[in-house]
């Protein structure tokens, strides 16, 4: 599960491919709540029985809505205004993926401790209606500092968390693109203002703070399709932008058995599971 966040990002991207409308050239005139409701709609369609409760969804929307703004990026040379939010999740020192996510079918090797990686998530999207999923979606998993997205040249050293970043770009109903190269520089500064956010199932306790994210870089995406691939690529340029978001500092973790949850997820994400096995 060392790519836990990247897998979640891919699953989230698959949500929107199932019911995307026509392409949009901008986020439109939706307010923050409507834009987030569009985002939540796709998530609930994907998760089904695993969806958050109404209270959890409302708490999350309430936490994010005040800091949701728009950012301008460039996609294939065209300037695009998109809703943007940042999220960072940190764990206590000494946390190991092997003891945090328990899979009886794959017991960890003795003495192996893989620290959680890809702590920073960026989400950019365009929506035209609160009652429909987003039209265009960019999801990025990275680290604080400089993250390399070139899987072919990055050395996989889990002990130093030298892992490639993951990013996904979706447009239209059947178009998904996976990062193949590029770099992103990220910095995150937490504020003194706290927020209320439901804890993930692997967290026993934690604190949420509003934070400021500064991002700059460029990512090249390659086309991916279950019906075959093309040679098309998408070039994303993120100028030096500043956006708001949330920082969840987990202070105490608890083991999370994976078998049942992974099985439930795979039943609901045939495209995502095929992509994961292909990558």
Key structural traits:
alpha+beta; single chain; nine-stranded mixed sheet; 6 helices; globular; 279 residues; disordered N terminus; two-stranded parallel ribbon; 11 strands; 23% helix
Describe this protein's structure:
A hairpin with an 8-residue loop joins strand 9 (203-224) and strand 10. This protein has 279 residues and is of the alpha+beta class. The protein has one domain (4-278). The chain has helices at residues 4-17, 32-47, 54-64, 97-100, 259-268, 270-278, and strands at residues 69-75, 78-90, 101-102, 120-126, 136-142, 145-148, 166-171, 175-195, 203-224, 233-253, 256-257. Helix content is 23%, strand content 40%. The protein is built from 6 helices and 11 strands. The protein is globular and about 50 Å long. Strands 1, 2, 4, 5, 6, 7, 8, 9 and 10 form a 9-stranded mixed sheet that branches. Strands 3-11 form a two-stranded parallel ribbon.
């Amino acid at each position: 599960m060392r790519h836990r966040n990247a897998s979640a990002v891919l699953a989230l991207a698959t949500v929107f491919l199932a019911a995307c409308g026509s392409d949009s050239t901008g986020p439109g005139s939706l307010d923050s709540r409507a834009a987030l409701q569009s985002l939540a709609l796709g998530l609930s369609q994907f998760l089904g029985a695993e969806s958050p409760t109404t209270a959890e969804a409302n708490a999350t929307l309430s936490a994010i809505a005040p800091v949701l703004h728009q950012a301008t990026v460039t996609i294939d040379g065209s300037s695009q205004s998109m809703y943007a939010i940042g999220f960072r999740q940190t764990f206590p020192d000494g946390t190991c993926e092997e003891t945090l996510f328990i899979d009886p079918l794959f017991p960890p090797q003795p003495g192996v401790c893989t620290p959680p990686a890809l702590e920073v998530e960026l989400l950019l999207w365009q929506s035209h209606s609160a009652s429909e999923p987003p039209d265009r979606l960019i999801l990025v998993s990275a680290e604080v500092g400089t993250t390399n997205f070139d899987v072919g040249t990055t050395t996989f050293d889990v002990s130093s968390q030298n892992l490639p970043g993951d990013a996904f770009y979706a447009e239209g109903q059947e178009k998904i693109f996976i990062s193949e190269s590029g770099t992103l520089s990220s910095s995150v500064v937490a504020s003194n203002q706290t927020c209320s956010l439901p804890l993930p199932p692997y967290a026993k306790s934690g604190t949420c703070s509003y934070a400021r994210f500064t991002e700059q870089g460029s990512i090249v995406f390659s086309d991916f399709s279950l019906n075959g691939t093309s040679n098309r690529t998408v070039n994303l340029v993120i100028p030096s932008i500043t956006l708001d978001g949330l920082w969840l500092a987990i202070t105490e973790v608890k083991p999370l058995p994976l078998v049942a949850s992974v099985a439930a997820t795979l039943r609901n994400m045939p495209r995502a599971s095929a992509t994961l096995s292909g990558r």
